[in-house]
Amino acid sequence: MKVHSGADWLWYQLGPHEKTEAKKMIHHNHWPQCEKWFEHENHINFLRSDTNDQNNEAVFGSLIYHQGLDDEKNHTVFHFYITRDFFFTINFDFSLLRGVKEKHATQQIQTCENPIEGFFVLLGELMNSYLIGLDEFEVKQRTLKWQIHDDNSKGILENVHKLRHELFIWKGLTLGAKKVEMALKEAFLPKNDRQKDYLRAHQKMERGITYINEFDQELSNLLHAEEVITSQRGNEIVKALTIFTTLFTPMTALGALWGMNFDNMPELHWKYAYICSIVLIIVSTLLIYIYLRQKGWTGDILREHQKKYLRKEKKR
After folding, report:
1. Is the pLDDT of residue 144 over 80?
2. Are residues 174 and 208 in the same domain?
3. What secondary structure letter does DSSP report for 269?
4. In this structure, what DSSP letter does residue 4 have?
5. Which of 229-244 are b and which e, b meaning 16 or more Cβ less than 10 Å from the residue's Cβ?
6. At a CB cut-off of 8 Å and minimum separation 6, what does 97 contact?
7. How far apart are CA 242 and CA 225, in angstroms?
8. β-strand 10-14 against 86-90: which pairing, if any?
9. Are residues 252 and 220 in the same domain?
10. What does the entry list under GO cellular component (predicted)?
């Protein structure tokens, strides 16, 4: 257990196996609500605010503060209990937070006037780490937008869904911190609502939520655009098959006709019957193609092939 001293308050930084020491710090008035949460390690994102006893308010719970992208079970939870005189954390590991230095964060927390402000510094450090992740997410999303523009392959839709999944994770982490902030404000503010560390943490959360909402909107637009493109491709395939079927209808029909074994088929004995049949098939196919071309039913497909060819030439 590490004990950090503020002006006239304490922060007890406990390890995952020091719950006995933590239990002794919980006020007996808060224990009925704490018991279920405290005795069950599987409680995640549990949050309670007890304001029944004036000047003895407390906010306590559990929060997922680190989550892997590929496995739901790859997450880390820390527990906290916050009063006007002290707060303790269980299983809070600074090494899991990118861009956050434990020594610097601890020193900043110790300069706070009260434990509520100190915990806001802790939430601010969480948000610093999340904002770094959101910055990297923005780069991935920008890359994906240009992939869609340059080469809209089949794997793009899967990449959009992967990014949306990652955004959901960042959103869950950020909203978890936001809920704790709201609970602290409910229990201890407005006395602390003008303190700088609260305002900093609040602004970081608002910034993170704003980023997430904007990214979510962009991903929705990308997903919609990709769905439209996929639908258009399906329509083009159906259109191409229809054109090919129509073009080869004369050949199919005449081939089926001459493949019959009727006794009376005089054209089979004509001297130039074979040449005439080939000419008839070619002429009828060309007439159908000219008709389709005049109607404009083949232009889109031909132009699309031309665009793809020009795009490849530019890349060279």
Report:
1. yes
2. yes
3. G
4. E
5. eeeeeeeeeeeeeebe
6. 65, 66, 125, 126, 128, 129
7. 26
8. parallel
9. no
10. plasma membrane
In-domain check, residue 220:
yes
**87-103 pLDDT per residue, tens:** 999 999 999 999 999 99
Whether 240 maps to a domain, the answer reads: no
Which of 100-104, 129-133, 156-160 comes out lowest in average pLDDT? 156-160
Angle at Cα 156 formed by Cα 151 and Cα 157, nearest 5°?
A: 140
Does residue 10 have a pLDDT over 90? yes
Could you give the number of structural domains in the chain? Answer: 2
Q: Give the structural domain span for 103.
A: 2-228
Confidence of residue 147 (pLDDT cuts 50, 70, 90): confident
Q: Are residues 84 and 199 in the same domain?
A: yes
DSSP at 96: G
Phi-psi region of 90 (alpha: psi -120 to 50; beta: other; left: phi over 0): beta
Give yes or no: residues 261 and 200 share one domain: no
